[in-house]
Amino acid sequence: MEVCYQLPVLPLDRPVPKHVLSRRGAISFSSSSSLFGAPDPRQLSQRRGAISYDSSDQTALYIRMLDVRVRSQVGFEPERRSSHPYLFIDFRTLHTRLGCGSASASAGPERRVHRLLSFQRYLHSSRLLRGVPQQIPLHILDEAYTGQARCMLEKVGNWNFDIFLFDKLTNGNSLITLTFHLLNQYGLVELFQLDMVKLWRFLVMVQEDYHSDNPYHNAVHAADVTQAMYCYLQEPMLAKSLTSYDILLGLLAAATHDLGHPGVNQPFLIKTGHYLATLYRNTSVLENHHWKSAVGLLRETGLFSHLPAEDSLNLERELGSLILATDISRQNGYLSRFRIHLDQENLFLSNASHRHFILQMALKCADICNPCRPWELSKQWSERVTEEFFQQGDIEKKHKLEVSPFCDRQKNTVGNIQIGFMTYVAEPLFAEWARFSDTRLSQTMLGHMGLNKASWGGLQQEPTPVSEEREPSRAGTDTEDAAARRNGNTATAAGGPSSKEIPQGSRES
Fold first, then answer.
1. DSSP-derived 3-state class of residue 172
2. What is the pLDDT of residues 178-198, one digit of tens each?
C-alpha cells in the first residue's frame, strides 16, 4: 500500500505549535520546530519501524519522507501481491532489474525522486503534498514549452500527431497536458463545473500511476490513445450525435484505460497466482484493475463529488463498461455485434445505449490504432510492444516458467508478430469501422495499415538470425492467442514504407 504524507500548512518563518502532531502510516513525528528553521534545543529522537531521525531537523525529515514515499511506491509486499514464490518481483522495476543488475536497481529510486521533483516544479503539485492547497495556474503549459507544444496542440486532431515529440516538449507530461487541453477545448471543465485543482490533481495522479518502466503500456501510450479517441470523436457520425457527457466519458476512459498496467499479461498473472488474478477471478483481470484504479483516483480527488451520488456512480459504471471493452479476448463478440448492426442498418445514435456501444468500439480502435499510424510512428510502437513481450519472456525463463506465445526473443521477430496482429486483429476491426464511418480518416488508416504490413513483409525477407520459419496459418493462430492473452492490453502493430502516398486524415477541431 502506498503511504502518503500530509504536512501542516504553516508559515515558514514561524515555529510550529507543539500540539501539532502528524502521523501517517507507521511514521510519527513531532513538529516542534520551524519547518526549515533552526533546530529547537529540545530534540526528540524518534524511531518508527526501520527509520530513526531527529525530529528537530525538519528539512532532513522532509527528505526522508520523500525517500520513504518513493520506496513505498517501488517496494514490494509479497504477502499481499502474490502467493507465488516466483513473484517476489515489483512489476514497476522488474525490467530494469532483470537486464541491468544491481546498478540499475539502485538507480530506480533516484529516477523516481527526480520525476517527483519535476512534477512538483512543473505542475506546482505533488502527491506528497496533495493535502496542501496549491495555487494551480490556469495555463496549460509552462512558459518554456509554450511555443512548440502549443503549436502542436493546435493540430491535435491530425492523425499524424507525433505523441513522442509532444511528450518531450511537455517534459514527459503528455498525458496531463493533452487530456487537460481536450477537456478544456470541449468546454467540459466549465459545463460540469469541475474544480481546477481537483482536475489537475487527478490528471497528475493518473499519469503517475502509469509505470514508466513499461516499454509500451505507459503514460505515453495512454496519451496516444486519448489523441486517437479525440480524432474519432471529431468524425461526422459521432460529432453530430454525441452529448457532452459521452465525450467526457470517452476522454476519461481513453486516458485511464491501461492505468496501473504491470507490463505483463493476464495469463502470466494467473499462472503465478498473482493477487489481481485472484481478486478478479481470472476474468478481464487487467481491465478490471485499470477500471477500479481509475475509480479510486476519482474518489480520492473528489473530482465528481459535487454531482449527485447516483450520477457519480453511473459515471463510474459506464467508465468501467468502456474500459472493459478493451479486453481483446472479447473482441469477437464486440465485432460480431458491430457487424450485425451495420448489416441491419439499425444503429441509431439518438439512442443512449447505441451511442455507448459506439464509444466502446471507438475506444477499441484507439487502443490498437498503432498499425494505422504513419510508418515512423507505427514502427516505434511495434518495437516497444514487442520488447515488452520479450521482457516478459525473459522473466519467465529466469524463473523457469513456460514462456508465453510471442514472448521468446530467440524465436520471434517484430515483423512476424506485427503482420499476424494486423491480419487477424486490426484489419477486421478497422474494416468494420470504415463501414460505419466511411470518411477520409478511415481510408487513411486502412491505407497506412496496408503499407505498414507490406513494409514488415519486406523486412521479413531480409536474413534475421533470431527468426524461425513459421507456417502462415500457425502464425495467425498464435497471433490470435497472443492478442487474447493480453486481455485488452493490446499488442499494437507497426507501420509501412511511405506515408506520403496516402491522404493525411486531418480533422478539424
1. coil
2. 999 999 999 999 999 999 999
